[in-house]
Design brief:
By secondary structure, the protein is an alpha+beta fold. It has three domains: 207 residues, no CATH class; 334 residues, C8orf32 fold (Roll), CATH 3.10.620.30; 105 residues, no CATH class. The chain has 27 helices and 19 strands. The strands form five sheets. Strands 9-12-7-2-17-16 form a six-stranded antiparallel beta sheet, with no helix packed on it. Strands 8-3-15-18-19 form a five-stranded antiparallel beta sheet. It is elongated.
Length: 740
C-alpha cells in the first residue's frame, strides 16, 4: 500500500518508511515494561523480607528460555510448561516453608484460605517466606507472557501479564505508579500489536497516543489502587479502628498505630485523640498491647503469619512470669482488643469472636460496642536484669528468621552508629538498654514532624531532631536487629490515668508504640525508648484543654474530678533496673555519646526540590499525548496555518517576499471561500472566488510580474506585504465580530 507524503502524515516522512517492524518492536517493548512492572513488585517484596537476587535471576533466565522456545515449541506445549512452572514453583515454596510434608498435605484448607485472602487484600509480605513465594511464582507468568509476545500473540500476552499485575493490585502490594505504568504498557502493547498486524499508519498511531494520555489524565484524578487499611477491596479486617466515631483518626497517633492489625504506616505530624476508649481493672499496671509487627519495610511495618480462632489457653512465655488479670469495659465503639503481654486466656462472651495471631496477640472479629466487656489473663516475663544478661544468644530458628529481618537496602550507617552506641555492652540486654538510653538522650519528643524520605530509622537517626513513639520504637528495633538481637514493634495503649485501686482510664491519646526484645528461655520483654516526661506533659495539657472546652467524652464518672498524674512511675519498663551508676555516669554519657552527624550522607544539603522521575515521565506522556491529540484533531495544522497567515518578515529577495505574500493571500481567501485547486491557475482562482477588493488585484499583478519575469523591486515587495497585512487585519476582525 503506497500513499503520498501528505496522506500519510501531512509532514515530510519518506514514502518508503517501513513501519511494521517498528510497531513489532514497540509492542514487544511494551510487554517488557508490563513484565518489569509486576516483577519489580515481587523484587521489592524480596528486598524487604529477604534476598532479591533470586527473583531477578529467575526472571532473566525465564525471559531467555521463553525467547528460545517461542521458535521451537507449539503453544499448547508452552501452556503445559507454564502450568508446570507454576506447580513446581508453588511446590518449592511449600517445601521451603516451616513444617513437615504431612503438615502441608493436611493443611490444604488453610492454603486455599490464604490464596483467597491474597485476592482480598492480604499483602504478600505477610505470608511466611515471601521471598521464596515471589521467586517460585514469578517464572510462570513471565514465561507464558513473553512466549506469546515473541510469537505475536500480543493480546494473550497482555492478558497473562495483566493478570499477574492485577493480583498484586488486589493484594495491595503494587504501588499506584507501578500499576499505572503497567496498565499503560498493556494498552500500548495491544495498540502497537494491532498496528503491526494490520500494517497501520502513523495517523493511526495518533489514536493510541491520545488514548494513553487520556488514561493517564483519568488515573491522575481517580485513585488506581483502592484505598483501605490492609484491604484493597475495602473489607474491614479484625482489629482495625474502623468502628471509631471520630472521623479524623488517620491524623492522630491512635489512627496511625491502630488503623490495621496487618500493617502500620509511619506518618508525619499527628494529633492526639482525648476521648476515653476503655477502662481496665488490673492487678498490675502495664502496656495494653493491641498489635505486633515483625516485618520492617523501611517506611512502615507489616505483621506476617496467619490468625486462628481462639480455642482455649494460649501458650505463655517460657521463663518465670507474673500473672496480670485484667477486666476491660469498652467506652467507645472499636475493633481494637487490648491485652497485656502475654495474653494466655480470654474470658467472656467475646471468646467465640476472638482470633489469635502467630505472635500471640488477640484480635476481635466484630466491633466492640460501648458497654461491652471482656477479661484477659496474661503472663508477663519478670526476670531480673542479671537473669536477662545471662540468657545468651542461642535463639530459636523461627525467632531469628522473623525478628532479625531488615530491608536489603537498609543503610549501613544505622548499624555503624549502633556499633558505637553498644560498644561497652557485652550482652543483648545491655545493648538494648544502651540503645534505649541513647534515643531518650539524643532525640526530643514532638508530634509535629515531617516524615523523612526513605528509611525511617535512618531518617530519624541522621536527619531528624525530634519525633514521637513510632519513630523511637521503629529506630530501636532496626538498631537491635543490626546487632543480631531479635526485636519487634508493638502498639497499643500506655497504662492510662489511675482512678482508684487497680483501675485505669485509657484514652485515645494513650495510644503508644514500644519495643519487645526476645531473650532465650524468658520470652519477649518490653523496652520503651520514648521519653516519658514530655509525652505525659503533652497528654495532660490536651486533656485539660478539652475539659475546659466542656468535652464530655474525655472523662468517666471516676476520672472527671481527678488530676491527670504523671504516668512515668506506673508505666516504666517492666525490666527496668534501678542503679545509681547510670545517674553518676549521666554527664559522661552526654559527653561521649556517639554523634549521628559523623555518619551523615556526604550528599546531604541539597535544598532545591527537584521533580521526581515519575513526575517527569508523566509530564512527558501528557505532553506527547496532547500534541498527538492536537495533531489528530487538526489543531496543529490550524495553528500552523494561522501563524503563516499573520506573520511575515522582510527578506533580502523581493521575489521571495512577494511569493510569500501571495501565499498568505491564498490562505486568507481559502479561509473565506475555498482553497485553490492545484489544477487552477492563479487568475482562474481569483476570478472564481470573485473577490472585488482592489487590493487583491494589485497583489495579483505584482505576483504575476515576479513570477513570469517582470522586474520587481523591494518597494514592490514591501507594497505586497503591506496590502496583505491590511487585508488580514481587516478580515480577521470582521470574522471575530461575526462570531459574536
Amino acid at each position: 500500500m503506497s500513499t503520498t507524503t501528505t496522506e500519510r502524515l501531512g509532514t515530510l516522512v519518506p514514502e518508503d518508511l517501513e513501519l511494521t517492524s517498528a510497531y513489532r518492536y514497540l509492542a514487544l517493548g511494551s510487554i517488557l515494561v508490563l513484565t518489569v512492572s509486576y516483577t519489580t513488585v515481587l523484587r521489592d517484596i524480596a528486598v524487604v523480607v529477604g534476598e532479591s537476587s533470586q527473583v531477578v535471576t529467575a526472571v532473566m533466565l525465564t525471559l531467555m528460555v521463553a525467547t528460545i522456545l517461542a521458535k521451537l515449541v507449539a503453544e499448547r506445549t508452552a501452556l503445559l510448561l507454564a502450568g508446570s512452572l507454576l506447580i513446581i514453583g508453588y511446590g518449592w515454596y511449600l517445601a521451603m516453608s516451616p513444617g513437615t510434608t504431612e503438615t502441608v498435605i493436611s493443611s490444604w484448607d488453610i492454603l486455599l484460605n490464604d490464596a483467597l485472602s491474597l485476592l482480598t487484600g492480604l499483602s504478600l509480605i505477610q505470608i511466611t517466606d515471601a521471598e521464596v513465594w515471589a521467586t517460585g511464582t514469578a517464572p510462570a507468568p513471565v514465561f507464558l507472557s513473553w512466549y506469546l509476545a515473541v510469537r505475536g500473540r500480543y493480546i494473550g500476552s497482555t492478558v497473562v501479564g495483566g493478570g499477574a499485575l492485577l493480583m498484586l493490585v488486589l493484594t495491595g502490594d503494587a504501588p499506584a505508579m507501578t500499576t499505572l505504568i503497567g496498565v499503560l504498557a498493556a494498552t500500548c502493547a495491544v495498540g502497537f500489536g494491532e498496528l503491526d498486524r494490520r500494517d497501520g499508519s502513523l495517523r493511526q498511531l495518533d489514536v493510541l497516543v491520545v488514548l494513553v494520555a487520556v488514561m493517564l489524565l483519568f488515573t491522575l484524578s481517580v485513585t488506581v489502587v483502592p484505598s483501605g487499611s490492609g484491604s484493597p477491596l475495602g473489607l474491614d479486617s479484625p482489629g482495625s479502628l474502623g468502628g471509631l466515631e471520630d472521623g479524623e483518626d488517620a491524623d492522630t497517633i491512635e489512627g496511625s498505630l491502630m488503623n490495621s492489625p496487618d500493617e502500620l504506616q509511619v506518618q508525619g505530624s499527628v494529633d492526639l485523640t482525648p476521648e476515653v476508649r476503655f477502662t481496665v481493672e488490673s492487678n498490675e499496671p502495664a502496656h495494653w498491647r493491641v498489635g505486633i509487627y515483625d516485618t520492617f519495610t523501611g517506611d512502615g511495618w507489616v505483621r506476617s503469619g496467619d490468625t486462628s480462632g481462639y480455642d482455649g489457653p494460649i501458650e505463655g512465655p517460657p521463663g518465670s512470669t507474673e500473672t496480670i488479670v485484667q477486666s476491660y469495659r469498652v467506652e467507645t465503639q472499636t475493633n481494637a482488643m487490648p491485652a497485656a503481654n502475654q495474653p494466655t486466656e480470654v474470658r467472656g462472651g467475646i471468646t467465640s469472636q476472638t482470633q489469635v495471631t502467630e505472635h500471640g496477640s488477640v484480635l476481635t472479629e466484630r466491633s466492640l460496642l460501648e458497654g461491652d466487656g471482656y477479661g484477659i489473663r496474661s503472663e508477663r516475663p519478670d526476670a531480673e536484669p542479671d537473669e536477662l544478661r545471662a540468657t545468651g544468644t542461642e535463639y530459636p530458628d523461627e525467632i531469628e528468621d522473623r525478628h532479625l529481618q531488615l530491608p536489603e537496602d537498609q543503610p549501613e550507617r544505622v548499624g555503624e552508629l549502633t556499633d558505637d552506641v553498644t560498644a561497652d555492652a557485652d550482652n543483648p540486654y545491655d545493648s538494648a538498654v544502651a540503645i534505649e538510653e541513647y534515643l531518650k538522650a539524643e532525640k526530643e519528643y514532638s508530634l509535629d514532624v515531617e516524615k523523612p524520605d526513605g528509611n525511617i530509622a535512618d531518617g530519624f537517626l541522621f536527619e531528624m531532631e525530634e519525633g514521637y513513639c513510632t519513630y523511637y520504637a521503629t529506630t530501636m528495633v532496626a538498631m537491635l536487629r543490626s546487632q543480631g538481637i531479635p526485636a519487634r514493634m508493638a502498639t497499643g495503649y500506655s497504662t492510662g490515668q489511675s482512678v482508684g485501686d487497680d483501675e485505669y482510664v485509657v484514652r485515645g491519646l494513650n495510644s503508644h508504640a514500644w519495643v519487645e526484645v526476645y531473650f532465650p528461655d524468658e520470652g519477649w520483654v518490653t523496652f520503651d525508648p520514648t521519653p516519658s516526661g514530655p509525652r505525659d506533659d503533652t497528654r495532660a495539657d490536651r486533656i485539660e484543654e478539652e475539659r475546659a472546652l466542656g468535652n464530655p467524652d474525655v472523662d468517666t464518672d471516676d476520672s472527671e474530678d481527678e488530676a491527670v498524674e504523671d504516668e512515668s512511675e506506673s508505666d516504666e519498663d517492666e525490666n527496668e533496673e534501678e542503679t545509681d551508676e547510670s545517674e553518676e555516669d549521666e554527664q559522661e554519657h552526654d559527653e561521649e555519646s556517639p554523634d549521628a552527624d559523623e555518619y551523615d550522607d556526604p550528599d546531604k544539603g541539597l535544598t532545591i526540590p527537584l521533580p521526581s522521575r515519575e513526575t517527569i515521565a508523566m509530564s512527558l506522556v501528557l505532553f506527547v499525548g496532547l500534541a498527538a491529540g492536537a495533531h489528530r484533531a487538526g489543531y496543529m495544522d490550524r495553528a500552523h496555518r494561522t501563524a503563516q497567515l499573520h506573520w511575515q518578515t522582510a527578506g533580502e529577495d523581493p521575489e521571495a517576499d512577494i511569493e510569500r505574500a501571495f501565499f498568505r493571500l491564498e490562505l486568507l481567501l481559502g479561509d473565506e471561500y475555498r482553497d485553490r485547486d492545484p489544477t487552477e491557475t492563479y487568475r482562474e482562482y481569483l476570478a472564481t472566488v470573485g473577490d472585488v477588493d482592489e487590493r487583491v488585484e494589485r497583489i495579483a499583478r505584482i505576483h504575476e510580474r515576479a513570477r513570469y519575469g517582470g522586474a520587481v523591486t523591494s518597494e514592490d515587495a514591501d507594497d505586497a506585504v503591506r496590502l496583505v497585512d491590511e487585508l488580514v487585519a481587516e478580515r480577521s476582525r470582521l470574522r471575530g465580530l461575526l462570531r459574536r
